[in-house]
Amino acid sequence: MSFNNGANPQGGFGFYQPSPQFQMPQGSMNFAQQPATQAFSQDPLPPGLLNALSTKGYPHELPLLEEIGINFSHILTKTKNVLQPLRRSDSLPLEIISDCDLAGPLIFCLLFGTLLLAAGKVHFGYIYGVALFGTISLHTLLRLMGNEDNKAQPQQLFLRTASILGYCFLPLCLLSLVGVFFPLNNMMGYALALIFVCWCTWSSSGFFTAVLQLKNARVLIAYPLSIFYSVFALMAIFV
């Protein structure tokens, strides 16, 4: 019986050298990727009181707005699509259709309520209540109208519904801005409110047509949407 006391297959003694074809298995024993991770996690923050009160974080750390899901460039891109109501629904970008962002809708709802407050109308509670009840009702209705894929993902469809309704709320913010300087409780205000409601309805119906993949049902989808946006238009018109 003979023992190989650390002998190299190529001759001599020493540690065994693996062949070039040898690959380290990918798993918990892969030590090649650990130094970078350890360096990232063990890199200390700069000391001092001013640094403790500042917004500085670890190196290579994502910005705070990006971590919580607020992307202003994406909000601007989706807002531009809302401002083009005559655009074909099948030409909308895929990332816009599948988006579930709620930062933009919250901004527009706060803007709408603030502009109404500037006109002497305190309707924040009505805005949140109608928005929540209308979103739930429209989600239930659109889920019944959609295909089987949308019915299998109710939570994702609800977030898309809230996102689309909120983004297409922007024209009503313009209506409330007009109401700050001019009274809307007249024939001119009624006509202007009708135009903005049709704008919101047509933009949102285009988004929902693309999401639900219903090419010939845009008018049918637009009917409940027009009722939803008309309630907010009435808030902007009457005291």
UniProtKB/TrEMBL annotation:
Biological processes per GO annotation: endoplasmic reticulum to Golgi vesicle-mediated transport; vesicle fusion with Golgi apparatus
Membrane topology field: Multi-pass membrane protein
Predominant cellular place of this UniProt entry's protein: Golgi
Keywords: Membrane, Transmembrane, Transmembrane helix
Gene Ontology, cellular component aspect: Golgi membrane; trans-Golgi network
Pfam family, one: Yip1
InterPro entries assigned to the protein according to its UniProt record, in alphabetical order: Yip1/4-like, Yip1_dom
Keyword flag Membrane: yes
Source organism superkingdom: Eukaryota
Subcellular location per the Swiss-Prot or TrEMBL entry: Golgi apparatus membrane; Membrane
Residue ranges occupied by any Yip1 domain in the UniProt entry: 99-235
TM segment ranges: 102-120, 126-145, 157-182, 188-212, 219-238
Family of the protein in this entry: Belongs to the YIP1 family.
Name the record gives this protein: Protein YIP
